[in-house]
Amino acid sequence: RLLALLALREAGGRAGLGDRTGCDRAIGRARAAFERGPAGGDPEWMSFFREAELELLEAQCWSALGDWSRAARHGRRAVGLQDAHFTRNLALYRAQLTGDLARAGRVDEAATTGHQVLDLLDRVQSSRIRGMVAGAVRVLEARPGGVPGAASFLTRHRESARASSPSGV
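The structure corresponding to this sequence follows.
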């Protein structure tokens, strides 16, 4: 599993450089290593690295490459596989998915997933997750012709952002 994680980190770096072919190859190596299962030499701290994490990291790669639909497909898998007891991870995975769906033009689905993230933010304090949701909101707000399917999510996000700011404004 350690080799799988390292290959995914390489894939993320290659995606950040715009190297689609290198990213795809590294993802292939990661999946092959992951499918071999855990090894006795895997460090104990790797217990977090399950299939949901693999899917999230792959989603992030495709997102970095601008392949929003593919990123959303892996993001959906990550959310579906994530143990509900890991609230922070679930919020993180859904925030990633919200942004990818928004960028893929899946407005209604982005809004639904965005509402789910906001539900979790009552229990999770994370500026990173809030920033990801704010990024998705900016994408939705910039859509030509508005976003009727996302209006309640956008309103709720504005209210949530106001309530969570230090001054309450």
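Residues 85-169 form one domain.
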